């Protein structure tokens, strides 16, 4: 098969009257006009990035100058001062050889051409932008702790617990936009150990009022807790002020800590739930506070007095950019015709289920309840009261619950989960006179991941039955809204449909049979680089895109979906089997791809999609649109006028920005599709890489926004188009199967052998919700 070559889509025209919003971008009002010289720097022996940056250079192996050095290649011998590195068992080297070699001259003219849509992104452009990033970060990284991009400051630090505190950080990045360069400045946050006497830290770890309480000595348990808390910390020995030395803690001894000072050093361990919640609250700020803190960060950066910017001829505005935006119209959602209110137009991104029945209510005739708690902790009567309220809500919402008194089973949360689920399955079957069980309602004692993962692995891949997990705290006083949300999940897990958009608002889908696809890859949990990745493709199975089927794979650690061709083939066949139609159009939303990988992903995955179509039929060629979606970015919007803000102070749902701060000429936009609940809302970034369906910007923006109102788990518009949201859920679910150490060994197409069981009998319903 001949390899096609692709080109990323250019921007089409737009419609609608613009409004103005602020954004956390600051214009570079003056760019370097001279040629910037790029040098490669090699340091040997190699040292960790921390030492590299602290001892020599910012930018690892790159150095940029505004004037040529008096040599093109030169070798330097450098010896560090004593005491400049912490004393450890493996002490770092003190003598280094540094080789500086001229790499290239960077002509800024290429960048000017690119910004004004007169040239492509050349290697010269990339190096110019890279140089600008190093220039703006160089001075600040020498003053404050820096982690990759953000720098952190103790100003406004908040104490957490046990000698730890939250620090505010600031992110900065040079970004090419329409006709100009901008600096994107945003907030970050991380955890540091408090500086000060080590003995004070020990007292805080143990929750003591003061270091004096340590005079009584430490128990073995306390000693272990302290050693775990302080191991690998960097400290200064102040016993002899004229000869301060630095050390790294290896273990705890009986030596006095009164003369030892703790360095402010970042907390590197994984945060527990309590600390994670505290950090989230610290990092979460409403739009007004966030905008003010970004301005504080700009003041700390102090670009106006930055000598390096002056040397390179750069100037940056002190004012947040004001950009053009538009607010898209809100779609109408269709419920069952028998509803008192069969159509609803959301208000500020949300609505409720009152007086509404789902489009297609599932029938539930065989099910059971499995409580992972003792009778003492949760009596049968409390369970029955909750089940009664849940059944009433399900009936009101359009489901048909013919079994009103499901059997109640109990299990030990640390016992044999497989045996417990199988017993619950048998109880349901026996109560229904031999009918196949449809659902097990599992009541969990806490939010622990292991039990939840085991339940899902066994029910999805061993037994083949839908499960609905709920926390026991919700059973005490059943809340109608909570029961309604559980009902929405249960209905689609049993094959029902909740709602869809009226035809006028999904015209692209109903004009001709169209399949929506969302793809995502989930990588191992942080800190585990050796585990496999999980790929998921979720695709609509009907014309109105109200239900989705999932196809999941385990693969090597890569961002590409390595078995996409077979996954697409499965999805196309499922669509045809469900509605008897062959899709004539494919709208493919791809999640989690960095800009540097756009062309690589496009060439690999678009070819796989086309190949899948040709496998099914040689002349089957549906038109394809390939859209990349990103949520991990630092762009934020702030409303200027009150009429364009919601009650949280965020921009209104439907706010779209497709000019001023977007790509100089490619087809991209930012869409804020959800209402703000906490903090400052993050818009979703969309970029069209390939389009055979003739989308203009308005049509794709409206369709994407409208689809965000069809997420089956709630009655709110969400921040991502549902097929991508579902793909993320399905990939995360797949990771749980191996998290629980299942017994079925499989091997991916890339040869990654891991424990992974195939989904059993649930592939055609939304079991992953």
Automatic annotation (TrEMBL):
Pfam families named among the record's database cross-references: ArgoL1, ArgoL2, ArgoMid, ArgoN, Piwi
Domain Piwi: residue ranges: 439-735
The protein's name in its UniProt record: Piwi-domain-containing protein
GO molecular function: nucleic acid binding
UniProt cross-references to CDD domains, sorted A to Z: Piwi_ago-like
Domain of life: Eukaryota
């Amino acid at each position: 098969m001949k390899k096609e070559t692709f080109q990323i889509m250019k921007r089409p025209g737009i419609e609608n009257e613009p409004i103005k919003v602020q954004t956390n971008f600051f214009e570079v009002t003056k760019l370097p006009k001279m040629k910037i010289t790029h040098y490669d720097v090699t340091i040997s022996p190699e040292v960790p990035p921390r030492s590299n940056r602290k001892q020599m250079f910012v930018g690892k192996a790159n150095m940029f100058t505004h004037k040529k050095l008096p040599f093109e290649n030169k070798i330097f011998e450098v010896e560090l001062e004593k005491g400049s590195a912490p004393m450890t068992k493996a002490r770092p080297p003190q003598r280094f050889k540094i080789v500086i070699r001229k790499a290239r001259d960077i002509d800024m003219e290429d960048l000017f051409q690119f910004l004004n849509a007169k040239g492509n992104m050349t290697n010269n452009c990339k190096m110019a932008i890279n140089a600008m990033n190093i220039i703006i970060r160089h001075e600040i990284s020498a003053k404050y702790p820096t982690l990759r991009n953000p720098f952190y400051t103790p100003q406004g630090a908040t104490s957490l617990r046990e000698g730890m505190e939250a620090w505010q950080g600031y992110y900065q990045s040079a970004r090419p936009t329409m006709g100009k360069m901008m600096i994107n400045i945003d907030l970050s946050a991380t955890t540091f150990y408090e500086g000060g006497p080590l003995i004070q830290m020990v007292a805080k770890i143990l929750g003591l009022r003061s270091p004096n309480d340590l005079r009584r000595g430490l128990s073995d348990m306390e000693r272990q807790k302290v050693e775990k808390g302080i191991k690998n910390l960097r400290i200064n020995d102040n016993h002899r002020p004229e000869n301060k030395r630095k050390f790294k803690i290896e273990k705890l001894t009986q030596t006095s800590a009164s003369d030892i000072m703790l360095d402010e050093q970042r907390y590197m361990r994984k945060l527990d739930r309590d600390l994670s919640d505290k950090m989230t609250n610290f990092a979460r700020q409403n739009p007004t506070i966030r905008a003010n803190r970004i301005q504080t960060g700009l003041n700390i950066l102090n670009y106006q007095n930055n000598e390096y910017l002056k040397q390179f001829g750069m100037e940056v505005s002190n004012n947040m950019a004001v950009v053009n935006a538009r607010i898209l119209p809100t779609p109408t959602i269709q419920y069952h015709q028998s509803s008192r209110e069969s159509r609803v137009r959301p208000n500020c991104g949300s609505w409720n289920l009152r007086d509404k029945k789902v489009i297609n209510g599932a029938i539930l005739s065989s099910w059971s309840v499995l409580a992972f708690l003792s009778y003492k902790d949760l009596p049968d009567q409390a369970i029955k009261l909750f089940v009664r309220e849940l059944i009433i809500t399900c009936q009101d919402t359009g489901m048909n619950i013919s079994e009103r008194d499901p059997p109640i089973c109990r299990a030990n949360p640390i016992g044999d989960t497989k045996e417990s689920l199988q017993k619950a399955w048998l109880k349901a079957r026996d109560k229904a006179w031999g009918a196949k069980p449809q659902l097990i309602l599992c009541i969990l004692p806490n939010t622990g991941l292991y039990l939840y993962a085991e339940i899902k692995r066994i029910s999805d891949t061993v037994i083949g039955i839908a499960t609905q997990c709920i926390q026991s705290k919700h059973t005490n006083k059943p809340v109608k809204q909570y029961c309604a949300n559980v009902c929405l999940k249960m209905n689609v897990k049993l094959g029902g449909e909740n709602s869809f958009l009226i035809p006028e608002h999904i015209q692209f889908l109903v004009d001709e049979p169209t399949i929506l696809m969302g793809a995502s890859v989930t990588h191992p949990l942080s800190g585990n680089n050796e585990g496999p990745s999980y790929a998921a493709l979720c695709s609509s199975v009907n014309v109105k895109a109200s239900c989705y089927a999932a196809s999941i794979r385990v693969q090597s650690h890569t961002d590409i979906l390595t078995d996409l061709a077979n996954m697409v083939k499965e999805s196309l066949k499922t669509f045809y089997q469900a509605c008897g139609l062959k899709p004539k159009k494919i709208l493919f939303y791809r999640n989690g791809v960095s800009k540097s990988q756009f062309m690589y992903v496009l060439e690999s995955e678009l070819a796989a999609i086309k190949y899948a179509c040709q496998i099914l039929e040689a002349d089957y060629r549906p038109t394809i649109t390939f859209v990349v979606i990103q949520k991990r970015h630092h762009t934020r919007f702030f409303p200027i006028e009150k009429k364009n803000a919601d009650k949280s102070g965020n921009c209104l749902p439907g706010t779209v920005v497709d000019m001023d701060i977007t790509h100089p000429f490619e087809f991209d936009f930012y869409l804020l599709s959800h209402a703000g609940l906490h903090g400052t809302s993050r818009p979703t970034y969309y970029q069209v890489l390939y389009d055979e369906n003739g989308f203009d910007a308005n049509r794709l923006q409206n369709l994407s926004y409208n689809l965000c109102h069809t997420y089956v788990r709630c009655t709110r518009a969400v921040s991502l188009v549902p097929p991508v949201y579902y793909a993320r859920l399905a990939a995360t679910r797949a990771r749980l199967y191996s998290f629980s150490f299942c017994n079925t060994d499989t091997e991916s197409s890339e040869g990654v052998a891991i424990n992974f069981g195939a989904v059993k009998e649930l592939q055609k319903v939304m079991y992953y919700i």
